[in-house]
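SAMPLE LOG
Freezer: B-3
Tube label: C17
Construct: single chain, 134 aa
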Amino acid sequence: MDFQESSRKKEEPEHDTLDSEIVAFDDAEISRVINDLLDPSTRAKALEKYISVGEYFYQRACDLDAKVHKFEQNIHRPYYHVKPLDDSQLHNWHRYLDLVEMEGDFDWAVKLYERCLISCAHYAEFWMRYVDYV
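STRUCTURE (predicted):
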């Protein structure tokens, strides 16, 4: 078996995990998982399940990072300047804010809005959008 074959095998999950199986864990579920991990008879199955869940969340994080990276690359002025931004910059900020709003993380969105307003201070559309969001 050569290096490419072994790396392909690592990338392919050994078991199928459906998105519907992955749900938010409450305290009772976490307690059950801990008990399953401590019980030698169910440890292997519990480890397999949580490794697949971890891989799923890792993949989601990688996908989100790739999306964010595209927007970050297109930000050319991270500071305030009286010179107007070009249309591509304004459009990039709008799309980036749309993405973060869709993610539903309020703190992340507020921090991005505040960062956006540093370079887009002269644009009332961003101020109004921030006020509407908050």
